[in-house]
Structure prediction request, 580 residues.
Amino acid sequence: MPACETDVLVVGAGPAGLTASALLAAQGVRAVTITKYPGTAHSPRAHITNQRTMEVFRDLGIEDAVRDVAVPNELMGDNVWATSFAGQELARLKTWGSGTARHADYAAASPSAMCNIPQHILEPVLRAGAERHGADLRFSTELVRISQTPDAVHAVVLDRETGAEQEIVARYVIGADGGRSTVADQLGFEFDGESGLGRAANVWLEADLARYTAHRPGTLYWMCQPGNDYWVGSGTFICVKPWTEWVMLFMYDPAEGAPDLSPDAVRERASTIIGDPDVEVRIKAVSEWQINHLVARSYRRGRVFLAGDAAHRHPPANGLGTNTSVQDAFNLAWKLASVVRGEAGEALLDTYDAERQPVGKQVVDRAMRSVEDMRPISQAFGFRPGQSTEEGWRSLAGLAADTPEGQARRAELRAAVELQNYQFNAHGVELGQRYASAAVASDGAPWPIPARDAELYYQATTHPGARLPHAWLEHAGTPVSTVDITGHGRFTVLTGIGGQDWLDAAGKLATEFGLDLAARQIGLGCDYTDPLGDWERVREISERGCLLVRPDHHVAWRSAGLADDPAGVLREVLRQVLAR
Ligand code: FDA
Prediction:
């Protein structure tokens, strides 16, 4: 069996694997990425792409390419509950920061806006980005066996076109092979949680619904009719292309038998949900998935790391599937690159588990709770298990009654819809991930007390472990974000007027550590100016202070002011963070 040697083998070319592949290639790491399928995703699947993920794409230089093919932010905002597209609208919520109450929070927090990009449209852009950096991507190549020794990982892969097997020997492996991960199974990763909590069907279809959607543009349309009270109601339409292409998603309880998923049956279901017999429905594909609530207890075993759905499996609520997968890769890629290049000690790799496993746990719990939190909506509509269709419609009619009971029902509905902010405007969950590990050096200060609900609201802070706050700066007459002048595979020192000693120390330590260490000065008359004072408001250090920012934009360490021996303290911090 011919053998191939590489530094990193990435198993899987979904959002996690392709992002890892692109980042490793951009950092010049010798890596091979394999996927068992002949191409990228062939159906829409995940689609909500949050600001943090867009920042990763921005770092990779593909943000504009993603935006060019995505449904823009302006067409994402309205979340509609109705009896059918042609029927009565029952409730609406402004989502993803599009409402006036939340828009400024989202705009202030990131240089990147959210977008709606289905996976089969996103993945080719990610693939092109990876290939532009020279990534070695191998399609129709399936991992069949994997084992590891203290020195290497041995993978046997099957070329599904020729039937030939090959051994790949890698120093490290990223198991980004999705919810049925061979890597996790064969290497004995353990999971906490439950699987098979319900099942769902995705029906990809074409139907021109412009007359029912263009005036209330959104990503999700929840259709609720009596007799379909199971979790999300009769069916949710997810916008793939405004306003002609959709995924109709519905959940069902397998204990009550599988629904008829034949093309005729799903077309009829879609027509009932649309409620207008003149709208033609063309079915493109039907697929099924199950609701899981699982997270790997540890993301690392020896030389192998799990990323994406391989590590965390949860319902699509909060739209965190692809986002968390991309963000896992962003955390792991620079660490692997640093270790492979000899800039960091092996122990740096432990911090991937320490930082991302708690995020995975938070995400699966949040997504599961958000699905549970949808039940009060159908209860407020008056839908109850076992009621007849007529009873259901009568009960729904009571929602609009001019009676004390009707009033109470409407208040109940409004509260149930407000609860959905934890799914659709959970800015703190989307952007506020914070790390505690050996790759973060404490400055002794406590985390700031959240001024508002930490799940709903992102709170900018430069506390070590937090994502670097975004602020618009100016450089040579061009607006540039703090996110743009950090990242790109390197560490960055940020300081202000009077911080020249930090800049000198950074130059000295870059040579001493053999490290790509950038240094930027922000302030009046500096290379980067802060014309609106945005940076001054969020930096939480004095002008002469210093932030050390990691390649993934997270703050590694900070100093409130100038130190007596800037090179000395920075040296100690770099030693800790890089495990040297
Ligand atoms: P992903 O599953 O995308 O990719 C896995 C990769 O591993 C693929 O490239 C595959 O070929 C490869 N692979 C697997 N086994 C392999 C092996 N043995 N050898 C080589 N390669 C192997 N989420 C959401 O938020 N909203 C939604 O509506 C949906 N809908 C949905 C529908 C369907 C049908 C699926 C399958 C999934 C969803 N999801 C979803 C989940 C969402 O797609 C998921 O969270 C992300 O794709 C996760 O990205 P990953 O890169 O981790 O895995």
About this structure: The pocket of dihydroflavine-adenine dinucleotide is lined by residues 11-17, 34-37, 45-46, 119, 142-143, 176-179, 182, 202, 287, 289, 308-310, 316, 319, 321-322, 325 (CB under 6 Å). The mean pLDDT is 96.
